[in-house]
Amino acid sequence: MQENYLPQEIEPTVQATWDAQQAFAADDNSNKPKYYCLSMFPYPSGKLHMGHVRNYTIGDVLSRFKKMQGFNVLQPMGWDAFGLPAENAAMKNNVPPAGWTYSNIAYMKKQLQALGLGVDWTREVTTCKPEYYRWEQWLFTRLFQKGIIYKKSGMVNWDPVDNTVLANEQVIDGRGWRSGALVEKREIPMYYFKITAYAEQLLNDLDQLDGWPEQVKTMQRNWIGKSFGADIIFDYDQASIGQTGQLKVYSTRPDTLMGATYVAVAAEHPLATLAAANNPELQAFIAECKAGSVAEADMATMEKKGAATGFSVIHPLTGDKLPVWIANYVLANYGEGAVMAVPAHDERDFAFAHKYQLSIKQVYQLANDSSTFDAQTWQDWYTNKDDSIRHVDSGQTFAETFDAIVAALEANAHGARKTQFRLRDWGISRQRYWGCPIPIIHCDSCGDVPVPDCDLPVRLPEDVVPDGGASLLKRLPEFYQTNCPCCGKAATRETDTMDTFVESSWYYARYASPQCETGMVDKKASAQWLPVDQYIGGIEHAILHLLYARFFHKLMRDEGLVQGDEPFTRLLTQGMVLAETYYRDLGEGKKDWFNPADVTLTKDDKGRVTAATLNEDGLPVMVGGMEKMAKSKNNGVDPQALIDQYGADTSRLFTMFAAPPDQSLEWSDAGVEGAHRFLKRLWRTVYQHVQKGVFPALNANEMDDASRDLRRKTHETIGKTTDDIARRYTFNTAIAAIMELLNTVQKLDAQSGQSLAVEREALSAIVLLLAPIVPHISEALWQALGHSDVVNAAWPTVDETALTRSSLELMIQVNGKLRGKISVAVDADNATVEQAALANSNVQQLLNGQAPKKVIVVKGRLVNIVV
Fold first, then answer.
1. Which of 677, 581, 693, 588 is nearest to 636 (CA)?
2. How many other C-beta atoms are found inside a 10 Å radius of the C-beta of residue 498?
3. Out of 407-411, 530-534, 696-700, 744-748, which region has the weakest mean confidence (pLDDT)?
4. Which residues lie below 8 Å from residue 576, measured CB to CB, with a gap of 6+?
5. What is the dihedral of CA 30, 33, 34, 37, to 10 degrees?
6. Between β-strands 665-666 and 807-814, what pairing exists: parallel, antiparallel or unpaired?
7. Residue 127 φ/ψ, nearest 5 degrees
8. Which of 462, 417, 408, 455 is nearest to 435 (CA)?
9. Closest Cα to residue 86, out of 111, 59, 104?
10. Which listed residue, 133, 257, 277, 459, has the most CB atoms within 10 A of its CB?
11. Distance, CA of 62 to CA of 724 (rounded, Å)
């Protein structure tokens, strides 16, 4: 064994050995219990960041731990490779997105391998390859024929200069991010997944997910948004509108109908169009509304604006005329594109009514105070729906009023009770090039025709460079020109591509049989491996990705491809990686950010930062505080540089030790150096032990007290580490316990006999316990201790006999303050313990010859003496 720890030599050698052994290949025919651990696959952006390192190290620790416990482990990896960033990078570098993507994958794969991840690379999937997306096209055709996928016009952000649809994030101050043109809302034909047909299942099946964080389940419940309310119908006021008709709204608060003082419609609503026909001011306002975002989140925070149409509708119960307003906060694609407004009991309507001087009509009062309603000042109780309120006229409760109003609406055929979901069908059409082609052929005679199975996949051309203009596929006749598979006439292919969330919604299932050429998944393989036992990823995916994956699992279940209702049994949402930020203020709200590696800190004798200067010019920079590592703040740490300097094991140890996995990790160069020092100390301890020569077999009858104490400490640490990793996922406390055990080993300083045997057992346990976390050094040390290889070693188990004690150490408190310790026999009775405590010299001094008022013995822990 070499004397010094040299990770740059050890790690590549160990990785080569694993590769030669195919150490992490999952066995499809094993009789061992299965364990499928999956970390969310990365987008191939070019380089790993520390968030990747943390995410994949967590998964690797759990996978290696389960492998050592005798499980047949599957830990795969792949690439979420389609998407807009690749198009943008390709335009910037004037290269095809395919080449850029495959080059990034090759580099990032080497980085992942350098981390020592125990991944089964034979199952690697890349979503932009035809052999992968062929099967989502296949599923698309099945779902289209069943009506689960359908086509309708949808509202989008449209850039009139680039002639393309923009994501909500690409609309900046109402303008396209690239062209700067005013963005329009436009209806275009789009394909939709009918996810609303599964809304009830998606909601109810959350109750099956005991292994998911409550926060995530709550976020999904809110997103699905099951609500109970009523449809309410307002007849047109023919005198003002000039025609008969009805306006339908859905409300979760029909009980407040008697307080409705106006209705609001979206800019795209037929009443808005009718009102603006000869009204330039309304036309301008509608145009302004259409230029805004279509995102609900943006709607919630933007300034609420409105315009009166001059139209009225008839209140269904009172016959009063309610004015119709066009409002920018009403979504055309939500419900009927219209809402009833009750300013007295809705904060948004309250603010709108004050802004435009509309009437406010009270419906409820507090049950114990009828004088608190103030039409000028909003109060939180105005939205109450419990027994704290009573109807101002009838005195009824919320529930009683709700039922009475709905009954009245149903009696005069102007409404009905209704359960509704906030969830909307999933529009998947994207006017992008770098995505999975939608497998539909448009024929003038036959309509929209799914591409036959024998013609799949519809291949995306990979040798073209996007230019940012109108849909590239629309300008490639060699792609879109084809013949109808039904009638044989000339036809055109669909040129939209699918939302990239589609690829990431089923990749977990493809890992079970990635080479399967006869189906989307092999049924036998999916039955063996699914569901995923442990899924790991960021909280930012709590809603869309996880909801879509759950939806896809149910779709595949209903196609007979997979079993069970849910794809992921347990979910771990790891925290963010934070780092210090440094900047200079450029004025006008702009800042120049500097990487921490380029900044020198001056500290006082207590370690507090007194100055920060830029290395390049020696001038001061501002300290911005800890923030999430991000390109925008230039505060990222290059994982490759860390591996090159310290080795992969140091980076793995630091990321697991610095914080529990579900909490934010604050980056610390000192913490990294500390992790490296620990590994060097461990190496040196094992090296010194190995040099001691011959080691006798363990024999408890020949051990001295110090050896017995170390052996007990060893097996206590095995028990704690096992529990911390298996049940609690608190890797940081497991590592702390192992570090404490190493300290105890060094204090023993065994030289001969049983002390050497116990030291060897302790060091062997340390190496095994650390193997999932720092696998390279563990492999080398395990072999130095005389074993074959740690990658196939079994997890250590607790020897209960080693935990027995002949004596106990008890704390002594006098009047609640710690004053000393005593050692007593394990079976000592309270009288003996009390006598030993009172004989302690510190206690004798405090008693000063007096008898204590009380002595309390807490068995096995402490003695509290009251003086």
1. 581
2. 23
3. 696-700
4. 51, 538, 628, 629, 664, 665
5. -140
6. unpaired
7. -70, -15
8. 462
9. 104
10. 133
11. 11
State yes or no: cis peptide before 130, omega within 30 of 0. Answer: no
477: closest CA among 455, 492, 462, 496? 492
DSSP per position, 245-271: -EEEEEES-GGGGGG--EEEE-TTSHH
Q: How confident is the model at residue 103 (pLDDT cuts 50, 70, 90)?
A: very high
Place of tokens 């050592």: 68
**pLDDT tens-digit profile of 146-205?**
999 999 988 788 888 777 777 665 677 778 877 788 888 788 899 999 999 999 999 999
Cβ atoms < 10 Å from Cβ of 809: 10
Structure tokens at 323: 């004015």
Spatial separation of the C-alpha atoms in residues 608 and 621, rounded to whole Å: 16
pLDDT of residue 299: 61
pLDDT number for residue 741:
98
The enclosing H or E element of 837 equals: helix 830-838
What is the SS3 assignment for 488? coil
Query: Could you tell me which of 257, 218, 244, 434 has the C-alpha nearest to residue 341?
Result: 257
Helix, strand or coil, per DSSP, at residue 408: helix
- The count of C-alpha atoms lying within 13 angstroms of the C-alpha of 663, restricted to the half-sphere facing its C-beta, is 11
Tens-place pLDDT, residues 757-800: 999 999 999 999 999 999 999 999 999 999 999 999 999 999 99
Contact between residue 269 and residue 307 where contact means Cβ atoms under 8 Å apart:
no
Kind plus residue range of the DSSP H or E element containing 216: helix 214-224
Dist. CA 786–CA 784, nearest whole Å:
5
Looking up tokens 């690379």 gives 121
Question: How far is the CA of 462 from the CAs of 319, 432, 458, 555, 661, in angstroms?
Answer: 64, 13, 12, 30, 39
The owner of tokens 């230029």 is: 291
Omega before 531 within 30 of 0, i.e. cis: yes
pLDDT digits (tens, 9 = 90+) for 637-689: 999 999 999 999 999 999 999 999 999 999 999 999 999 999 999 999 999 99
